[in-house]
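Subject: sequence -> structure tokens, single chain

Hey, anyone have a minute? Need the predicted structure for the following. Not urgent.
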Amino acid sequence: MGRYVLVKHDGKETLVEEALLKEEAHLQEVFKCNPQLIPKDDLGLGDLLVVGREAALTSGLIDLLCVDQNGQVIIVEFKKGPENTEHRRVIAQLLDYGSYVWGMSFSDFERRTLEFLNGPRCSLADLKGCRSLREAYERYWGVADQSDEEKNQEWTLFMETLSSCLSSGEFYYLIISRKIDVITKRTVDYLSSLAAFRIAAVEIDHFEQADMEIFVPRTVLSQARRVGSSSPKVRTNESEFLDCMGDDARAAFEPLLAQLQGFEETIYWGTKGFSFRIRCRGKLESILWGYPIGNGQGILQFASDYYYKEHPDLGPLLRDYASKMKEAIPKVHATNTYYDAKVPEIVHKDNIIAVIDVVTQCVEALRAL
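Reply:
Had a minute. Here:
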């Protein structure tokens, strides 16, 4: 193909010629075993963990499904090049897959992840035998000298971000190919310029000779840098959060946040929303979450029985809290791990006082332990 790379090793120099990729499956396997090849800094992503290869959905097989250290979900589709007749359908395929992951509960995502990590397709021996996504998270990204509180805080932020991505459908779509054709490039460029859409493309320069193979990834669209940046995401705050809300949603969130501040506990602001945390028995326990979902609306979340199984000593108290909250918000939607209530559709200015009363009871009960 006319291009070469020069490899120097053990005092020897070898010219390796560029070569076509023989099949997409080989490219998938290379990236599955080496997710570091994805240029995360260019794309505004954290360190990546592959949680599925050819993950089966009703609509087909996702080539690679990943999460990053911040809890973002990345859906990857590979094409060996424009010579593939399906190359121009790649964006439609990605959106199709995203529509099936959208709305998946945290527990369903965790189950699928564990099936992959404990199955034959996973190449990470250190993650074999994981019984929960948290265990996998701590084995893969954990820092040995972190305190238990630091571990809990990082895991909670990861879990909250991942749950928010699954609920909102705000995934990162990534196309990886030897060559991105002009039409696909233009479409990706357009979509990545939209504030609510995150998509990028990476081209692979591939060189091969005898038993030597070299893969050189590069981000090909400047727009991808505007989708994210190599600097950490800026956390939101109460003012920015409320500014995202329409008048009706603001009328519900404003008194709730005022009451939460009055408890003098922890309101943790993430990149999009907040979690309310109570210090109980030396640990911070999250009991309420809030996120924007667009069109001036939001989601108010509290944990389901599944979540409370991880808190056996607090389970009865927290289940009572959940039961009372469901009475205050009768139409709450159960997603296994969380209960979701749309604001202002379900939680509005007329019933927010009842919600605040239940939260107050829970805070008092936790403080009394």
